[in-house]
Write a structure and sequence with these properties.
- The complex is a heterodimer of chains A (667) and B (85).
- Chain A folds into 3 domains: 168 residues, P-loop containing nucleotide triphosphate hydrolases (Rossmann fold), CATH 3.40.50; 89 residues, Orthogonal Bundle (Helix Hairpins); 385 residues, no CATH class.
- In chain A, 63% of the residues lie in helices and 8% in strands.
- In chain A, a hairpin with a 2-residue loop joins β3 and β4.
- Chain B has 85 residues and is an alpha+beta fold.
- Chain B has 2 domains: 45 residues, Arc Repressor Mutant, subunit A (Orthogonal Bundle), CATH 1.10.10; 33 residues, no CATH class.
- Helices cover 32% and strands 12% of the residues of chain B.
- Chain B is built from 3 helices and 3 strands; from the N terminus they run αβααββ.
- About 6% of the residues of chain B have low confidence.
- The chains are: A alpha/beta (667), B alpha+beta (85).
- At the A-B interface, α13, α18, α19, α20 and β10 of A face α1, β1, α2, α3 and β3 of B.
C-alpha cells in the first residue's frame, strides 16, 4: 500500500512528463481514462521506506470544462483520490504558466507549487524568490529543474511538507479580486461548503460566471430551483470569463510583484519594424519592397534567358541544316517552328519563375512577407473585407487557384466571393513569368517600368472591383481588428529555399511545356500551308475580326493569344510562338518583316503600343480555367462565377484599350 | 482583456508589440491574454496551413474538414493571426 498518491498537474510543456518519468522510471503503466481516449499514466516510486503512487494528469491549460483533458483532471482531483497535488509552472514564463495555479485555487485537495525549468529562468536573467511566493499563497513552493537528478531531494522534502501540513492555497487576495465582479457575491451566497464535494463555493461561483456547463449542470442537480434561478440571474448580469480571467491575472501579478526580479522587456520594435509598422510610412515602404523585389527578380532570370537565346540560335542553325538536307517542310516546321521555338519561350519564362519565386520566397523566409501582410491588413477593412483576406491575395501571386482555395478560411460568404473576385486581379506566377519576358523583348531596359505599372494598375483594379462588387456582397457590420504575431527576422535557410524554388520551377516547366506545345501545335497547324497564307481559315477569321480587336489595340494574332490565355496564361505564348515566330503566317500578318532572332521578329511585327495593350490584356484577363473551376468550387454559385469571369474579360479589354492609347502617346 | 478587445473594435489590426505599447504593458502580458481569450473562445487562431489530408491540392477534400487550406509550402513563415469570434 502506498504512503500517498500524488497527482501531477500542469499546462502542456510545464515539464510534467519529465518529472513523472524521473520519479517512476520503469515502474509506470499507461492506459486510457475510463470511457475516454485520453492517455492515463500512473506509476510508483520509493523514497526512504515509503512507496508513493503518482498520477500524471493530462496536460491542460486550465481547470475549466473546455476539453476532455480538463474535465478528467478536475474530476480526479475533486474525487479525493490524490492526497496531494503537485502543480508545475514554467519558471521562465510565470506570468502565464501560473494561470493553472490561479484556476486551481479553491479546490479542496492539498497542493504544493513546483517552479520548474529553473535553469531556463536563470539563463534569462530572472531571479525568483520562492519563499516570497510561498508567503503570499500559503503552500510550499520550490525552484526546480526536472532534468537535474541532484535536485530531487529538495522535491521529496517539499512533497513531505505539503503532505504533513495538508497545505491549501490562501485565496483571500484572489477572492478580493473576484468580489469586484458583478454577480459574484450573489451567486456565492447560494452555495455552501459541501454543495459539491471537493470544490469550494468560491471556485464553483467562478465557474458559473465562466459559463462552465458541467458545473452548472451539477449545481442544477444539487440545488433547489429557486436558488438555481438566483444563480442564473446573477450570472447573466456578470462580465463572465473575461472578468474572472482578469482577476486571476491580477492575482498572479500580485504574487510575482517583489518575488521576481527581471528586466521587463518593453515593447521595442526593431529598425525595420519601426518603418513597416509605421502608420504613414508603412505602406510606401511595403510597396517599395515589392517593387524592388520584382525588379530584383530580373537578376537571376537573365542568365536563364541567355540559355533561351542559345536554344533559339541552335534552332535557326538546325532549320538551315534540315532545309539544306531536303527535310520535308512539315517535319522541319514541327521540330524547329513548334518544338524549338516553344522551348525558347518556355526557358525565358522559367527564368522569371525562378527569379520571382526566389526573391519572394526569400522575403517570406526572412520574415518580410508577414510584415507586408500586416501593413495591408487594415486596407482590407477599407475594401469591405476581413483582415485575413490578405493571405489569399499573397498566395495568388503564386497561383490564383491557391488564392481561391485559401479564401475558404473566410466564413462570411459575401466576403469570400469578394476576396476571390479581388484575388483574380493579382497577377499569378504564370503572369509574372510571361509579362517580364514580353516586357524585356519589347521595352528592353524599360521593362521594370512596365512591371511597376502593372503593380499600380493591380492596386487600382482591386479598389475599383471592391467598390463595384461589395455593394451586393458585403454588409456594413462591426468589424474587429486582428491580433498578429509577426515572426522574428532570421537568416534564410538557403538549402530549403533553393529546394523549394527549384521544385516550383520544375513543376512550372512541366505544366507550361504541355500547354505551350499543345496550343502552339494547334495554331501552327491551323496556319501551316504550302500554298498561300491568305487561303488558311485562321487568316480569314483573323482578318474578319481584326477591325473589332484593333479597337482594343490588339492585332488578330494577339487577340487569339488573349483568348488562349484564358486556358492558362502560358497558352498566349503558344499562340505567339506559332503565329509570329513559328509559322509561315507572320510574314503575312507582320507585313513581311524578317529578322535574325525571335526578339527582333516580334518587335518587327508588333508595335510597342500593341505590345503594351497585349501585356495588360493577358495580365488582367481571367486567370485560367482551373482558377475558374476553383472559384465555382468555393462559392458554389454559377451566377457569381460567371459574373466575375465576364467582368474580368471586359475590364482586361478596357485596360488594353487604355494601355494602347497611352502607348500611342508615349511611343 | 476588456481593454484589448476594446482597442480592436476600431477595426485596425495590431501586432503583439503594438498592442503592448498601446496598453502600456509587456508583450508577455499580451501573449497570456491572447492565450486566455483563445482558450475561452473569444478569439480564434486563423489557420492557413495546408491540411494533412490533401497537402493543399484539395482533391476530393471535405470542405468542413479542410478549413483554410492553402497550397503546400505556401505561407509557412507568416507568423500567427487571431480574430475575434
Amino acid at each position: 500500500m502506498s504512503a500517498a498518491t500524488i497527482a501531477l498537474l500542469g499546462q502542456p510543456n510545464s515539464g510534467k512528463s519529465t518529472l513523472f518519468n524521473a520519479l517512476t522510471g520503469l515502474r509506470q503503466h499507461v492506459g486510457n481514462w475510463p470511457g475516454k481516449t485520453v492517455e492515463k499514466k500512473e506509476g510508483t516510486f520509493t523514497h526512504g521506506s515509503d512507496t508513493y503512487s503518482v498520477a500524471d494528469l493530462p496536460g491542460s491549460y486550465s481547470m475549466s470544462a473546455n476539453s476532455d483533458e480538463e474535465v478528467i483532471t478536475r474530476d480526479f482531483i475533486a474525487s479525493g483520490k490524490a492526497d496531494v497535488v503537485c502543480i508545475l509552472a514554467d519558471s521562465s514564463q510565470l506570468e502565464r504558466s501560473l494561470f493553472m495555479l490561479a484556476d486551481y485555487a479553491g479546490l479542496s485537495a492539498p497542493c504544493f507549487l513546483v517552479l520548474n525549468m529553473e535553469d531556463v529562468a536563470k539563463e534569462q536573467g530572472k531571479t525568483i524568490d520562492p519563499q516570497a511566493i510561498e508567503k503570499k499563497i500559503g503552500i510550499p513552493v520550490m525552484m526546480f529543474s526536472a532534468t537535474d537528478t541532484k535536485a530531487y531531494d529538495k522535491f521529496y522534502a517539499t512533497l513531505e511538507r505539503a503532505l504533513r501540513n495538508k497545505s491549501q492555497i490562501d485565496v483571500s487576495a484572489l477572492e478580493k479580486e473576484y468580489e469586484k465582479i458583478g454577480g459574484y457575491s450573489e451567486i456565492k451566497e447560494q452555495l455552501v461548503d459541501d454543495t459539491i464535494s471537493g470544490y469550494t463555493p468560491m471556485w464553483l461561483t467562478v465557474k458559473v460566471l465562466e459559463n462552465d456547463k458541467v458545473v452548472s449542470a451539477k449545481l442544477k442537480n444539487t440545488l433547489p430551483d429557486d436558488k438555481m434561478q438566483e444563480i442564473e440571474n446573477a450570472a447573466k448580469s456578470s462580465d463572465g470569463a473575461i472578468a474572472t480571467g482578469e482577476c486571476k491575472f491580477a492575482w498572479i501579478d500580485g504574487i510575482l510583484d517583489g518575488a521576481v526580479n527581471e528586466t521587463k522587456t518593453a515593447a521595442k520594435l526593431g529598425k525595420l519594424d519601426r518603418i513597416y509598422t509605421h502608420k504613414f510610412w508603412g505602406k510606401p515602404a511595403v510597396v517599395l519592397t515589392v517593387i524592388l523585389g520584382l525588379i530584383a527578380s530580373f537578376i537571376p532570370a537573365v542568365p536563364i534567358m541567355g540559355v533561351g537565346m542559345g536554344v533559339s540560335a541552335l534552332g535557326g542553325l538546325l532549320k538551315e541544316t534540315m532545309i539544306a538536307a531536303g527535310s520535308p517542310d512539315l517535319l522541319t516546321g514541327i521540330i524547329c517552328d513548334v518544338i524549338i521555338q516553344s522551348l525558347f519561350y518556355i526557358i525565358n519564362m522559367l527564368g522569371f519563375v525562378f527569379g520571382v519565386t526566389l526573391v519572394f520566397g526569400l522575403l517570406e523566409e526572412v520574415g518580410v512577407m508577414a510584415r507586408i501582410s500586416y501593413v495591408f491588413d487594415n486596407t482590407m477593412g477599407k475594401l469591405g473585407l476581413q483582415g485575413k483576406s490578405v493571405m489569399p491575395f499573397l498566395v495568388s501571386f503564386g497561383c490564383t487557384m491557391g488564392g481561391a482555395a485559401g479564401a475558404r478560411v473566410i466564413d462570411n460568404w459575401g466576403q469570400k466571393v469578394l476576396t476571390i473576385a479581388l484575388a483574380w486581379a493579382v497577377p499569378c506566377g504564370a503572369a509574372w513569368s510571361i509579362v517580364p519576358m514580353l516586357s524585356t523583348v519589347f521595352f528592353g531596359a524599360g521593362a521594370p517600368l512596365v512591371i511597376i505599372a502593372i503593380l499600380l494598375v493591380m492596386i487600382l483594379h482591386m479598389w475599383v472591383t471592391a467598390k463595384i462588387f461589395s455593394r451586393g456582397l458585403v454588409k456594413t457590420e462591426d468589424k474587429y481588428g486582428m491580433v498578429m504575431e509577426l515572426p522574428p527576422y532570421h537568416k534564410p535557410k538557403w538549402g530549403a529555399l533553393f529546394r523549394y524554388v527549384l521544385g516550383r520551377t520544375k513543376d512550372t516547366f512541366f505544366r507550361v511545356t504541355k500547354v505551350v506545345l499543345i496550343v502552339c501545335a494547334i495554331f501552327w497547324l491551323l496556319s501551316f500551308t504550302t500554298g498561300s497564307v491568305e487561303d488558311t481559315i485562321l487568316y480569314k477569321v483573323g482578318v474578319a475580326i481584326e477591325p473589332v480587336t484593333k479597337f482594343f489595340g490588339l492585332t488578330w494574332p494577339l487577340f487569339l493569344a488573349f483568348i488562349a490565355s484564358m486556358v492558362g496564361k502560358e497558352g498566349a505564348i503558344g499562340v505567339i510562338s506559332a503565329l509570329y515566330t513559328g509559322g509561315s503566317i507572320y510574314a503575312a500578318v507582320g507585313g513581311g518583316a524578317v529578322a535574325a532572332n525571335i526578339g527582333e521578329i516580334l518587335t518587327a511585327n508588333v508595335t510597342q503600343p500593341e505590345a503594351l495593350a497585349f501585356i495588360f490584356a493577358i495580365t488582367f484577363n481571367l486567370p485560367c480555367i482551373v482558377a475558374l473551376a476553383a472559384t465555382y468550387q468555393e462559392i458554389h454559385s454559377v451566377k457569381w462565377t460567371t459574373r466575375i469571369a465576364l467582368y474580368y474579360i471586359a475590364t482586361s479589354l478596357i485596360l488594353a484599350f487604355a494601355a494602347y492609347h497611352i502607348g500611342l502617346l508615349i511611343f | 482583456m476588456q481593454k484589448l478587445l476594446q482597442l480592436l473594435k476600431d477595426g485596425n489590426s495590431r501586432t503583439v508589440e503594438v498592442l503592448a505599447a498601446e496598453l502600456d504593458t509587456t508583450p508577455a502580458d499580451i501573449d497570456r491574454q491572447i492565450e486566455y481569450l483563445e482558450h475561452i473562445g473569444v478569439i480564434r487562431r486563423v489557420s492557413f496551413s495546408a491540411c494533412k489530408s490533401c497537402g493543399g491540392s484539395c482533391n476530393g477534400c471535405n470542405a468542413a474538414e479542410c478549413k483554410g487550406c492553402m497550397p503546400q509550402n505556401a505561407a509557412v513563415n507568416m507568423g500567427e493571426m487571431w480574430e475575434v469570434v
